[in-house]
Amino acid sequence: METPYLLVDVDVAVAQYRKIAAAFTGTPVYYAIKANPEPLLLRELVAAGCHFDVAGRNEVDLCLAAGASADRLSFGNTIKKAEDIAYAYRQGVRIFAFDSLGELQKLVANAPGATVICRVLASSKGALWPLSRKFGCAPEMAIDLIRYAARHGLDPAGVCFHVGSQQLDPGRWEPSIAEAAVLFGRLREEGIPLRLLNCGGGFPVDYLAPAQPIEAYASAIATAVDRHFPVHRPDLMIEPGRYIAAPCGVLHTEVVLVSRKSYADEPRWVYLDVGRFGGLAETEDEAIQYRLSTPHDGAPTAPVILAGPTCDSVDILYQNARYELPLALRPGDLVQIHGTGAYTATYASVSFNGFPPLRTIVVPPRLR
Q1: Does residue 367 register a pLDDT over 90?
Q2: Which of 78, 167, 269, 320 could form a disulfide bond with 99, CB atoms 3.0-4.6 angstroms apart?
């Protein structure tokens, strides 16, 4: 089969959903479908009882087409066109996130009476794919915005935050939970009793290095909520994307070239037929380090620099991380890149250098 292509095993994603849902017992799991919006994957998650975090109107349509009811959708993007808010509202979506007055005013005008959640800034320390200040607002601003929402006919349910993607520190959620508790307390005193705490995503998976089990994160969050909300404990929700989708995908790629830059002893350059523009955007700064397998595993290895096929100098995957591949590796050999079910096909360029988008092949669910 012609490479590159992403092979997605739907059963693996459903198993991941069931695992995180069991760890967070009683907490609705909203799959962030931007990680991997394959229709068959969404249909199986619907059947398993999953909820969905959507970032745009097309994702609303994908979820509804997969059989999800609108009341299982949360429009979590805080940067929405007014017409997209109105469209989602007409479809029955009633949960929307915001982090600014301008966004809130669009919700007042286009989603009257909707349930709204204010996104608060959070630290991404400890995350391999940290988030910037693009999303969220300071707590003091959040209080003013929630007051505004209550005065203008919306239902301010609570706050949300995100501690960064592939967050390796289970304790990173507690500072934001503590901050939320103070915010909840102040608003309750004013007669605005918030009831929902959205702890976002960021839950990690195994790549080249293993991550802690999901139970460690669920326990850390539950302990923090108990500590900071001794009374008036809020309902929780979470929004995993990577955790559900990443393990279900294996990217199949072919070696195009193995070369050296000089006669001196230095790492070989291994060029694959997929790179940063073909779906491996998360190798930027070598943040996400995928596990590789080849037909020669077990044979002698030596250091390599891994790069993609395009005529662009930034299309280098790994040159600082220590990757070793078999000395027997040759052009035409198949390399499998594991854990690539999330943020790969959705990141691929349309036709940079004439390369087509990354093709996805879905393994349907096995007979149950």
Answers
A1: no
A2: 78
